[in-house]
Write a structure and sequence with these properties.
The structure is a single chain. By secondary structure, this protein is α+β, with helices and mostly antiparallel strands. Helix content is about 30%, strand content about 25%. It has a single domain, classed as Cytidine Deaminase, domain 2 (3-Layer(aba) Sandwich). Strands 1, 2, 3, 4, 5, 6 and 7 form a seven-stranded mixed β-sheet that branches. β6 and β7 form a beta hairpin. α2 runs parallel beside α3. The protein starts with 10 loop residues before the first strand and ends with a helix. The protein binds tetrahydrodeoxyuridine (THU).
Length: about 160
């Protein structure tokens, strides 16, 4: 028997401490919350994906009366980016959540399904995707999708099973 420790690194800072590029991405994510369709949760989430060449794709959560048919902001933005620019790496994603009349002090973290999707595109392009979780009082910056979801199911697991 052995015990292993899985650690992750995260930068915890204030919006003012972000780089100009990070701030801009956060600003786009905040703007995107205005396009959220969230009549059921009243929890508006915005996301902005930065492509390697500087282009930005935005998305917001889109809900449905049949709850599972809705989609989170992160996946809306990532799939939008992937559908339009299938050959360009995604180098960062910023996420912001607005509820009860203001942005949250500490941002919502992406759900498990969104983390799995972020990881897929990070692996597809073999390029780290920085994940910025904006909060009014505190912002988290993860260096990659993998750092947000260590020990995950990946294409390697599938391919090794097929051998
Ligand atoms: N949601 C997101 O869009 N992203 C997250 O990171 C967490 C949750 C959405 C899904 C649903 O529309 C609402 O927030 C409440 O869960």
């Amino acid at each position: 028997m052995q015990e292993i420790e899985i650690t992750t690194k995260v930068r915890v800072c204030d919006y003012s401490e972000l780089t100009t590029e990070e701030k801009h991405l956060v600003d786009v994510a905040k703007e995107q919350t205005k396009n959220s369709y969230s009549p059921y949760s009243h929890f508006a989430v915005g996301a902005a994906v930065l492509m390697q060449d500087g282009e930005i794709f935005g998305g917001s959560n889109q809900e449905n009366a049949a709850y599972p048919s809705g989609l989170c902001a992160e996946r809306t933005a990532i799939f939008y980016a992937g559908a339009h620019r299938p050959n360009t790496a995604m180098t960062a994603i910023a996420i912001a959540a607005y509820s009860g009349g203001d942005f949250l002090d500490k941002s919502a973290a992406p759900c498990g399904s969104c983390r799995q999707v972020l990881l897929e595109y990070e692996h597809k392009f073999k390029t780290p995707m920085k994940v910025i979780l904006y909060g009014k009082k505190c912002t988290f910056v993860f260096p990659s999708a993998e750092s947000l979801m260590p020990y995950s199911f990946t294409e390697d697991d599938l391919f090794s099973a097929q051998k």
